[in-house]
Design brief:
Blueprint (H helix, E strand, L loop, with lengths): L2 H8 L1 H8 L2 H8 L4 H12 L2 H14 L3 H28 L12 H15 L3 H19 L11 H9 L2 H18 L5 H26 L6
Helix pairs in contact: 2-11, 4-6, 5-6, 5-7, 5-8, 6-9, 6-10, 7-11, 8-10, 8-11
């Protein structure tokens, strides 16, 4: 079994819940309330800075230049088309990004996970978090790819950004990187990467749970 498949098997229940969630089902059906989508995008936009820094750290720690180049290309997508999508969609739904939304506790926890991975110096730990963030989105969005063109752009483009051959290639690259380095990890580094993977999946599920509720603050 591939290391990434093994890691996924450890969190099968949370993975299924996160990738077949009522929130994403409603999003893909175009029935999600506008205020729920707006709140979701405002919370998700809070991840951009930490995600970019995490991805940049992974690029810096990649084993070789060929290993780094796909991540560098993906960084351009995140800081370009995806960032622009956020600004357009949030504005179209009547929201703003300045000042930024107050982070929900699950958002804060996920941002902390990204920062910890970025500062860890452990390539596998970084890639583990990145893999979850992108692989779970590919998993939920792909079954709905054929609906994207018929939806308002704030729904449809979000699906398109996370499906199709280009994004499948990103996920294949991230999984491949983790699979590649896994056999050579020390027990401590392997445990750190596994913990990061498991925690990230748990937080993906919790993030969608909070999204369907409108991110109520405790």
């Amino acid at each position: 079994m591939r290391p990434t498949d093994h890691l996924k098997s450890l969190v099968a229940e949370d993975w299924q819940a996160a990738t077949r969630h009522v929130f994403t089902d409603q999003l893909a059906a175009g029935t999600l309330a506008a205020d729920r989508m707006l709140a979701y995008l405002q919370q998700d936009y809070l991840f951009i800075e930490d995600f970019v820094r995490l991805l940049a750290s992974a690029i810096a720690h990649a084993p070789s230049l060929p290993d780094a180049i796909p991540a560098a290309q993906f960084l351009g997508l995140i800081s370009g088309p995806e960032n622009t999508y956020f600004l357009r969609a949030i504005a179209a739904l009547g929201g703003t990004t300045e000042p930024p939304a107050a982070p929900h506790p699950v958002t804060t926890e996920f941002k902390a996970l990204m920062r910890t991975a970025a500062k860890s110096g452990g390539y596998a730990q970084m890639i583990a978090v990145l893999s979850v963030a992108e692989w779970t989105y590919l998993d939920w969005a792909s079954p709905h790819a054929d609906k994207a063109a018929t939806l308002p752009f704030w729904f449809g483009e979000w699906i398109t950004l996370h499906s199709g051959s280009g994004f499948e290639g990103v996920v294949a690259y991230l999984r491949g990187q983790l699979d590649q380095v896994w056999p050579g990890l020390s027990p401590e580094d392997r445990q750190a990467a596994q913990t990061a993977f498991v925690t990230a999946v748990r937080l993906e599920r919790a993030f969608f749970d909070a999204a369907i509720a409108g991110y109520p603050m405790p």
